[in-house]
Amino acid sequence: MNHAGKVIEGLMRAELDRYTAANPASRRLAERAAEAFPGGVPLHWMRDWATPFPLFMAEARGAELIDADGHHYVDFCLGDTGSMFGHSPAPVVRAVSDQIARGVTAMLPTEDGVAAAEALARRFGLPFWQVTTTATDANRFVLRWARAITGRSKILVFNGCYHGTVDDTFVRLEDGRAVHRPGLLGQATDLTATTKVVEFNDLAGLEAALAPGDVACVITEPALTNIGMVLPEPGFHAALRDLTRRHGTLLVIDETHTISTGPGGWTREYGLEPDVFTLGKPIAGGIPCGVYGFTAEIEARMRRVEAGVPHGHSGMGTTLSANALAMRALRAMLEEVMTEAAYAGMVDRARGLAAGIEAAVARHGLAWHVTQIGARVEFHFTPTPYRSGSEAAAAMRPDLEQLVNLFLINRGILIAPFHNMMLTSPATTEAQIARFHDAFDACAAALAGHA
Ligand code: PMP
């Protein structure tokens, strides 16, 4: 190991000791949990943090989280977007508290649902909507619809994408060949037979993949946000829309993360024209809910294919989806929380957050860069942005990521345990951002000359 590697390892050891000493209550809970949950957690992602044992949450409000040992954190992870508008926003607390005593789920529609659909249509410019329990489900059902209405079996994704646990999208490029993503357990079908994968920003590759006319849909985020951030090059989205139209391929835009851009997501901010739009995570304030919206043309095509099969089990929908509680929360978020004013504040604070990171990086001579999509900010351990998922994957530094994550936790700051992702919420204050800058500066100082 070279000198820099040894320095990083030494810093990590010190941070692990510091965390262990500071968190006896979390440690006791982790020991109990290990008896009940394989790996000690009810969802394996909860093990992905850099901590030697999970930090147990006691409560959270706005942009602050309190752990089982009573430490207060400024939360920039915000449930990896599920709480992007702050933990337990007051309008959602009011709405959910009222609704939970008036019936949670009845498999019948409610007026709140109608109002929510009208609000979605106004906000995102698509007339028709369906509701699911997660963003994963929204994407899975949309792929099914796309195949059903086009009569084509294939889909296309960009290398490095993530759209939830939708197996069809767990395909990667390896030396230019499509392969299953390592870790895709128990999948018995060769997904590469029906999923094409090309690099983001590779328009020639995209055109070649669409040319045979066998691709039902392209599903993509407006910018890749799950492999670090890969931003579209100028003209990419216009060309993507043109090529998909030309080849009879539907365009599905997944805004689950890029809803950070602004009130209408990237789609409205930059005038994208998707056939289908999907979104989940924060839209019902963390109450499980996903949605997909589509054009009148897609709706007509859906009705045509539905008319040709017996009514009933389409493979789309789950029992608890669109229940009265979720619809009430969704309505409250759209009408009272995800407002223009809320976005203006959070995006402005994200700018300040990013500027302070850039200043610390420059001060300590680190060759890192920062990207921002509205209220979403990330720092990356390379001097220049990535053009593709492959470039982003090659630049990953798990050792540094883990160290920075734990260093910040030990100083009262939570950022996402993946690729240094941070969100500012409407509740995030300037003082909280200053706290982050202090901790980040200390981390950058410790790493100066070694990263
Ligand atoms: N789409 C995107 C772009 C995502 O990043 C994610 C989750 N990270 C999902 C969909 C799936 O969300 P969920 O796990 O809530 O179903």
Automatic annotation (TrEMBL):
Cofactor: pyridoxal 5'-phosphate
Segment forming the signal sequence: none
Keywords: Aminotransferase, Pyridoxal phosphate, Transferase
Classification via InterPro entries: Aminotrans_3, PyrdxlP-dep_Trfase, PyrdxlP-dep_Trfase_major, PyrdxlP-dep_Trfase_small
GO molecular function, one term: transaminase activity
Lineage: superkingdom: Bacteria
Pfam families xrefs: Aminotran_3
Record-stated family: Belongs to the class-III pyridoxal-phosphate-dependent aminotransferase family.
Matches recorded under PANTHER family: GLUTAMATE-1-SEMIALDEHYDE 2,1-AMINOMUTASE, GLUTAMATE-1-SEMIALDEHYDE 2,1-AMINOMUTASE 1, CHLOROPLASTIC-RELATED
The name this protein goes by in its record: Aspartate aminotransferase family protein
Taxonomic classification: Bacteria, Pseudomonadati, Pseudomonadota, Alphaproteobacteria, Rhodospirillales
